[in-house]
Amino acid sequence: MPKKNGLEAVREIRRKSLPSKISIIIFSNSKSPEEVQLSYDLGVNSFIQKPLSYQDHLQCIKNIIIYNCLIKRVYNFT
């Protein structure tokens, strides 16, 4: 993002919307335990460390899509 980092974006999203309406998934290269904890403290739903290979990226994205579809079905989100 050109003008904000991911954590700044999370702060703004959480400040402007109801937490239950938007799922936020951080997809990051960071290995910092402090950044992971801060992300959860700010209200992200998941923090995923980016895989190194292209195939692992694809599988990770597929898993995120499946997860979100299941959550929507369980909680009847539309």
Can you tell me about this structure?
Strand 1 (25-28), helix 2 (33-41) and strand 2 (46-49) form a beta-alpha-beta unit. With 78 residues, this protein is mainly α. The chain has helices at 6-16, 33-41, 54-75, and strands spanning 25-28, 46-49. Helices cover 54% and strands 10% of the residues.
Binned, the helix content reads: 40-55%
- Unreliable residue runs: none
Structural class: mainly alpha
Radius of gyration: 13 Å
Report the mean per-residue pLDDT as an integer.
82
Q: Quick one: how many beta strands?
A: 2
Q: Which strands sit side by side, in order, in the main sheet?
A: 1-2
Shape: globular
- Percent of residues in beta strands: 5-15%
Span between termini: 27 Å
How is this fold's topology laid out?
Blueprint: H1 6-16, E1 25-28, H2 33-41, E2 46-49, H3 54-75
Parallel strand pairs: 1-2
Briefly characterize the structure:
By secondary structure, the chain is mainly alpha-helical. Helix content is 54%, strand content 10%. The protein has helices spanning 6-16, 33-41, 54-75; strands at residues 25-28, 46-49.
Feature tags:
two-stranded parallel sheet, 54% helix, mainly alpha, 2 strands, 78 residues
